[in-house]
Design a protein that fits this description.
It is a single chain. The chain is an alpha/beta fold. The protein contains 9 helices and 14 strands. The strands form 2 sheets. Strands 1, 2, 3, 4, 5, 6, 13 and 14 form an 8-stranded mixed β-sheet that branches. α9 (316-324) links the parallel β13 and β14. α2 (115-135) crosses α8.
Amino acid sequence: MCVVIQAFPCQRKTVHFNRKREPLPKQARVFVLGAHSFVGINASDVNYSAGRYDTSVKPPFDAGFEGIGEVVGLGLSASSRYTIGDTVAYFGSGAFAEYTVVAAKETVPVPSVRPEFLTLLVSGATAYIALKRLGDLAKGETVLVTAAAGGTGQFAVQFAKHAGCHVIGTCSSNEKAGFLKSIGCDRPINYTEEDLAKTLRKEYPKGIDVVYESVGGSVLELAVNSLANKGRLIVIGFISGYQTSSGIPPFKGGTLPVKLLQKSASIRGFFLPHFLGDYREALSSMMQMFAKGKLVCEVDCGDMAQEGKFVGLESVFRAVDYMYAGKNLGKVVVEVNPPSVSDSKL
């Protein structure tokens, strides 16, 4: 069973995200319409489009990891799960499109086409699974979340609080600090006004038990130096280097073995595709939390962006640039406006 999305031609940098997929059995297809739908923006979109995830792939190829839309067509076996008009969220490459084909196993039924549900597919799932499987959180521990007001950081803050931890969150503005307080962050640190290293040394002399780190470079170095005895540092990304030619930010790790040994500390990497066995449970749990009002899913549709709200696939590039400029509060999403059904080839 699968869902179908037609890829779009991109007009920038002569890259076209329209690579043909392997044919799927017609009886297994689910056709999803992008009308009133949304696609999610992730920091790793830059890595994927640069070919770092699969060096064998050459342009043109599909990009985008997640979307939410309406079913407009079904294969025979797929009709056992869905009907025309159902709304589904999907997680897989090729989401930056007006229509798509996605295997039904890669789709999740959702109550409505709301961007809040989209935030859970990658950003929420990364935080949920990483902290559960690698964080070993215990009540009363101190947790540091970097880029805490971003797409995945907002969830890490909330899940750590649900575990009974004291949470510190870094951010780049007072507005973001206010948002972090509203979702339970005990100590937001606006690093444009406070020295992060000095603040951590002064206020947390015993160190940090768990760090949820996505920035890399000097921030990662600081996180290592700030670990408590038996501290755990979870690396879920290093956005500070993604836009460089190598994709990797500089890191001074010459004394890393000594620092980890002296504190019996550890660094643990997390890549969501390696934990797909935990995905369904994580998504189900988060959906329930959101329905009960126990989870905030902050969405940034670009209302405050200089050129306005992110509408249409041509806005994807603006949305990526907006996120890398650190202007977003929450998960960045783009609303997709596809051609009318009568004009489509489905």
